[in-house]
Amino acid sequence: MFTYTLMNLVKSPLRSLQLFASCFLVFMLILLASSFQESMSSSLKVNSDDKNVILLGAGSEESLERSEVHQSAIAAARTIPGLKKSFDASAVSPEIHYNSVLQFDGIEKEALIRGVQKTALNVYPALELTEGHFPHSGQMMIGRFAWKRLGLNQDQLKIGKSIVFEKQEFIVSGIFAAPGTLMESEIWMNLNDMISLTQRDSISSITLRLDQAEYDDIDLFAKQRLDLQLAAISEQDYYAKVSSFYEPIQFMAWLTALLIASGALFGGLNTFYAAIESRKKELATLQAIGFQRSKLMMSLYAESALIHLSAFLVAISTALYFFPLVSINFGSTFFTLGVSHLQIFYGFALALVLAFAVIILPGWHCLHPALNNTLND
């Protein structure tokens, strides 16, 4: 019976190729949509740390870029008890998040720049300098994937290269990694340089790393210091809000993929139906010489499963090779597509389910009628 199944696949190569192409398109679209969803959610989730709390300007809890915090809040934040300490210094990171146009070898690119002090290293334990050193005045530190986000050659952001910001030249002093976080696509510079060049008298936020203190302690501090006009939000809650902002985009990606995949699926179903209908007499003859209907149905399912599984294997191989080469930049969000083990598992299961779904109706239509009626037809 297995030989019969294989012979049917090669008997009409054009028909088999058409079915394979339909299945391949369906799997690629589903993998693309699920990868987009998973990669975006994963990058925002990993970016947050449950030990970090952000102090923002009251009323600006949804955007670090729009927030303004008076500089006097930095000294006040350092007095909060229960924060993590490093060499008697509290883990407090005053920051400015700023979108601006930078020049790289004469090429202008819009980039997200973060003005920081060296205490940021105490607040973000995932961050690690892979080359060079933390930026002093007149220098910048580059996330290892910033070149991807900016669409530049990696060599254009090597240590020693110059970057022009607000008509001032800065030298790249170091490259840093922070696996799985959005920070890897950012450019960091000295906080005082940024305050001076942007002529600001305020900062964007203050990030605190908790030790014995809890979020409620920081929230109470923000509410008691009405003069500073602060609001406290945990880093996890902040990035959960950012993630919810992108939910309509994720929904549209799924909807588009499902609509196109549905078209391809119905096209494949129609092709399967026509292919089995043309073999109606052949199947009736096999029944007449003693083959059971259940075995013929299993043979049809095996044909369908072989086509779906081979299409899925080619689709997943294509995705594993090409998806990591695709980087997507949405506002402050940047991520690279990837394929997880769960996607492979569910894709394999989906291939088996679809193989059954497209064969059950045409198989029933050909095998259910009485044998003498089918032979007479």
How is this structure best described in words?
There is one protein chain. The protein has 377 residues and is α+β, with helices and mostly antiparallel strands. Helices cover 51% and strands 22% of the residues. It is built from 13 helices and 16 strands. β15 and β16 (333-336) form a beta hairpin. α1 (2-11) packs across α11 (293-322). The mean pLDDT is 83.
Could you give a short description of this structure?
This protein is an alpha+beta fold and 377 residues long. The chain has 13 helices and 16 strands. Helix 9 packs parallel to helix 12 (341-367).
Topology:
Layout lengths: L1 H10 L1 H35 L4 E6 L11 E2 L1 H7 L6 E2 L2 E2 L1 E13 L2 E10 L3 H4 L4 E5 L6 E5 L2 H5 L11 E4 L2 E10 L9 E4 H8 L3 E2 L1 E5 L5 H10 L5 E5 H11 L1 H31 L2 H9 L4 H30 L4 E4 L2 E4 L4 H27 L3 H6 L1
Parallel strand pairs: 6-11, 8-10
Antiparallel strand pairs: 1-13, 1-14, 2-12, 3-4, 5-6, 5-9, 5-13, 7-10, 8-11, 9-10, 15-16
Helix pairs in contact: 1-11, 2-8, 2-9, 2-11, 9-12, 11-12
